[in-house]
């Protein structure tokens, strides 16, 4: 049985860890509130850009296929997969579930003979890919806690250039969509080509949900033409989609970290209770042993 001093030292160590986890929980909760405010402000704008892009593409029709970012490649040989992770850990399975999803997607494409070009944001994603032997075609770190629109634009430029140059035949993004502080759902979206993009699937789902409204669209006159407007909208659509993923991932990270640190603090409290009982038993055993020695010594004198 450990001595009373050993148990007391361990209790002190656990209490110090508990102070750290509680501090991290408090910081994560404060940052989460700010991240939630950014999401609430961004979502309406992002939805509007996606809706406008979809409507302009419908109005442009076949003319839209002339744009490099909209024309679908004849064969899909290289797919760019952007993994959105955090720069830090201590957030449960937040980062690992994105890595697992990306590896699963890569395996699906490999079965079809399609090569995966990796892109990753966050030090955790970059290091995990490197550890698994995958060299990222693009790595973006240092802004996971507070991403700026310029960061999303930089990532979007690389992906759009790769697609326009023919290096990529499809572009997808995998990130943690923010549901609540306790829940983050892995989301997979297709950004390019637009005909296969997630916004096209959203439009089809809306038509299936409201068949009476199918084909009913507000009359919109485009000046200049819809293809010219689409040429300007598509880069904005890719940028805002990536920026939204970054912001949602940030909120999801702080929610996951807050939950993980709260659980760690609770576990530390339970461990302290168990160790305190163990220390009391050790103290009682030492006192009993001392009493027995005193009694034995007294009997030896008689």
What features would you describe in this structure?
The chain has 302 residues and is an alpha/beta fold. It folds into 2 domains: 4-25 and 260-301, Orthogonal Bundle (Helix Hairpins); 36-257, ATP synthase, F1 complex, gamma subunit (Pyruvate Kinase, Chain: A, domain 1). 62% of the residues lie in helices and 13% in strands. It has 6 helices and 5 strands. It has helices at 4-60, 94-111, 123-131, 149-164, 198-209, 226-301; strands spanning 78-84, 115-121, 138-140, 170-180, 183-192. The protein has a 5-stranded mixed sheet, sandwiched between helices. Helix 1 packs antiparallel against helix 6 and helix 2 crosses helix 3 (123-131). The protein is elongated and about 115 Å long.
**Range of strand content:** 5-15%
- Mass-distribution shape: elongated
Give the biggest sheet: 5 strands, mixed
- The class by helix and strand makeup works out as alpha/beta
């Amino acid at each position: 049985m450990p001595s009373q001093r050993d148990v007391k030292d361990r209790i002190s160590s656990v209490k110090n860890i508990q102070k750290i986890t509680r501090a991290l929980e408090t910081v994560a909760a404060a940052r989460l509130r700010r991240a939630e405010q950014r999401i609430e402000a961004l979502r309406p704008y992002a939805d509007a850009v996606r809706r406008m892009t979809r409507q302009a593409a419908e109005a442009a029709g076949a003319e839209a296929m002339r744009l490099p970012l909209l024309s679908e490649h004849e064969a899909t040989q290289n797919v760019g997969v952007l993994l959105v992770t955090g720069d830090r850990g201590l957030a449960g399975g937040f980062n690992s579930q994105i890595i697992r999803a990306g590896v699963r997607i890569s395996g699906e494409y490999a079965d079809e003979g399609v090569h995966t070009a990796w892109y990753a944001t966050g030090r955790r994603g970059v290091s995990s890919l490197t550890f698994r032997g995958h060299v990222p075609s693009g790595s973006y770190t240092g802004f996971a806690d507070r991403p700026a629109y310029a960061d999303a634009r930089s990532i979007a430029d690389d992906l759009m250039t790769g697609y326009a140059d023919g290096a990529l035949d499809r572009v997808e993004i995998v990130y943690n969509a923010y549901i609540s502080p306790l829940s983050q759902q892995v989301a997979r979206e297709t950004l390019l080509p637009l005909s296969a993009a997630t916004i096209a699937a959203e439009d089809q789902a809306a038509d299936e949900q409201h068949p009476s409204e199918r084909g009913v669209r507000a009359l919109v006159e485009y000046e200049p033409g819809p293809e010219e407007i689409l040429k300007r909208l598509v880069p904005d659509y890719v940028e805002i989609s990536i920026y939204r993923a970054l912001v949602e991932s940030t909120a999801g990270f702080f929610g996951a970290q807050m939950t993980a640190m709260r659980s760690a603090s609770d576990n530390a409290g339970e461990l302290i209770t168990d160790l305190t009982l163990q220390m009391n038993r050790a103290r009682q055993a030492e006192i009993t042993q001392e009493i027995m020695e005193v009694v034995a010594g007294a009997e030896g004198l008689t």
